[in-house]
Amino acid sequence: MRRAFIATTWTEDSADDDIDTLIKAIDRCYDSLQPLLGRFGQFNPLPQLKVFGSWELSNTAATSPFPNFEWMIDRSLSDDGKAVVASRFVDMVHLEPWQSSFPHFDLTLIDLPLIDDVRRSATHYDALGMCQPGLVSVISTAPLEVIDDPDLRALTLSHIVAHYLGRLVGTLELQPAGYIYPRAPHRHCLRTCAMRYLDDNPMLALSFAQEQAEKGLIYCSDCQHDMVAAMVNYRLGIN
Ligand SMILES: [Zn+2]
User: Fold this and answer.
1) Which domain holds residue 140?
2) What is the CATH number of the domain that holds 42?
């Protein structure tokens, strides 16, 4: 299905610094892919980034079945109301009227804990993120509370954003060299790359982020090529 843009959203209590990191991280990922693209003015497969934040429909809020973003979050909460349940949020994204009118990618930042019951289990309360490739990635900043230093938190979150952006556009779905560990619930990269398996471990994400910052790279060359190829497929609707 053709998908030409990424809608970025976040919960209203997300920290301003985290939101800033989210947007800048996506920009850096796009910059890293530029050398693989054609000259300016030629076909550009990068999905346009549309920033919706914690959106609200001002005129139709009273009657729309989907009046605002927090409404979608509220209906995605666990029974104890303390965390977002991944499968419930994915259902919300599927049902969102705008998704059926204008199919797009959703990249969402939440400050609440995330239960990844899609890939892991209903008792897994501290997921860094979850992804349904081709549709939605959700990233939770709740596990990052263990990192006190704001610069290290931003570095870690940037790495996680790069990982879930890559998975959102289906990077690892294309890659025959992708790997699956017995413990990993999905394909991942084994090179020095943002597509390595994070195991929902914020300290592992931090160590990967530091290693890659020292080397000045985000994705390995194979994942860069696969990411652009996946974006072309979605841009043209041939996947
Ligand atoms: Zn890679």
Assistant:
1) 5-236
2) 3.40.390.10
Rounded to the nearest whole angstrom, what is the distance from the C-alpha of residue 191 to the centroid of ligand 1?
A: 5
Measured distance CA(35)–CA(224) in Å, rounded? 10
Question: How many angstroms separate the alpha carbon of residue 118 from the centre of ligand 1?
Answer: 23
Residue 60's pLDDT is: 55
- For the chain, the domain total comes to 1
Query: Which alpha helices (H) appear in 5-60, and where do they start and end?
Result: 16-33
Distance 61 CA to ligand 1 centre (A): 43
Q: Report the C-alpha gap between 110 and 173 in whole angstroms.
A: 25
Q: Give the Å distance between the CA of 169 and the centre of ligand 1.
A: 14
Express each pLDDT in 70-124 by its tens digit: 999 999 999 999 999 999 999 999 988 888 888 999 999 999 999 998 777 666 7
Q: Is the whole-model pTM more than 0.90?
A: yes
Distance of CA 139 to CAs 86, 181, 193, 234, Å?
10, 22, 18, 22
Q: Which two tokens stand for residue 117?
A: 């019951």
Residues 168-194 have a mean pLDDT of 76
Query: Residue 95 Cα, ligand 1 centroid: separation in angstroms?
Result: 33
